[in-house]
């Protein structure tokens, strides 16, 4: 029975593996490692409460290295159930069992960073580095909690030293490179900063282990062509299951101001920020493959079922919430699908000066699933396809899409905040002008910026790198408009 369970697990058949472990444990419940493996499979299958219960069984039955089980439970609470208080309790339990358990210290530091507790995060990262001086991810995250003002900053020297270290993985070298680039940019050493970012992106590409291009321009163009063809007209009548209003979707290019936009809305007493929910992309991958071709033959009952499930999942994550925001930037790809599922859905389309937007993406350590981010011209190509697709969505749903321009908002914050609140159908609340005071957690690269009052130093940042951006500027010339927005 154990061989069968492990065999299904190795082949990636989670459902069969779960069933096999459950049969095994029903007969021999005393084996903690099998409870641990069952919990892992349940988590992979998205059965998070069942996974927590299985991990608890492993703990109660004396699993070895219980601190690891506690940390695994904390990840479920934090990433999947949005219960950070429970996540912290699990991490504290892990550290009570083993005070020098570096992974738990590192995760606790990440949690404090998401909460905006800068000094606590710094102290925890330094504690990690005291235990493991070669924990380069902790050093990179430690650097991100600090603003650099002068070239002789001791932390900048530590980053330079780390960048020259011989024994480092490509992933670690990429993280240090991005942190070093950010520090050099902050002190105005722009040429050296760009060199550090270029190295970081090259190391990130190597860390993927793929010999193929991570971004296929022609393939992406075909995907956008297909989206425009499949969703060539307005969606039909609402699915029968649409019993309540869907979230307000905030989308656009990454690094276009979506986190700031959600934080402004989160300052309103009626709004609950959901952050970057992965529910729509997961639906596309698991239920609607091959997308978007499957939409041509998808029966209305199936679409109604998917719409109802999405609403149930959101309600389970945020019980009793009034207005919810789903801030997944790349949902702009799925506006046609979302309008098919929820014809009343509204979209806040965050925009930004194109060169600033592309540069900010290139300067950020992103997931390899966003392979276009590793090359400036690939980023420019992706940006051009994004604009083409958004132009299409606006021909269908212009009244339900608000272009929220980051640069215009910086110039006239009250005017644009009022426009944003009104578009969402909310009464004005002055708290929206003090978004930096909101206690909502932030798990994106903008975690520290959005906790500051509004500033304009990110607008026009591309001019510091005008020489390096010349090819991109020429490529996007017809899409660049530096004039004020109406």
Task: Describe the fold and architecture.
The structure is a single chain. The protein has 22 helices and five strands. The chain has 486 residues and is mostly helical. It has a domain of 263 residues: Rossmann fold (3-Layer(aba) Sandwich). Strands 2-3-1-4-5 form a five-stranded parallel beta sheet, with helices on both faces. The protein is globular. The chain starts with a helix and ends in an 11-residue tail after the last helix. The mean pLDDT is 91.
**In oligomeric terms, what are we looking at?**
single chain
CATH topology of the domain at 217-479: Rossmann fold
Annotation, overall tally of beta strands: 5
Q: What fraction of the residues are assigned to beta strands by DSSP?
A: under 5%
Known CATH architecture of the domain at 217-479: 3-Layer(aba) Sandwich
* Rg, Å, rounded: 24 Å
> SS-based structural class?
mainly alpha
Shape: globular
The strands making up the biggest β-sheet line up spatially as 2-3-1-4-5
Distance between the termini: 68 Å
Q: Tell me about the largest β-sheet.
A: 5 strands, parallel
Helix fraction, binned, reads 55-70%
Spell out the CATH superfamily of the domain at 217-479.
P-loop containing nucleotide triphosphate hydrolases
CATH C-level class of the domain at 217-479 is: Alpha Beta
Residue-averaged pLDDT, rounded? 91
Could you list the spans in which at least 5 consecutive residues all have pLDDT below 50?
Answer: none
Count helical runs: 22
Q: What is the string of helix and strand elements?
A: HHHHHHHHHHHHHEHEHHEHEHHEHHH
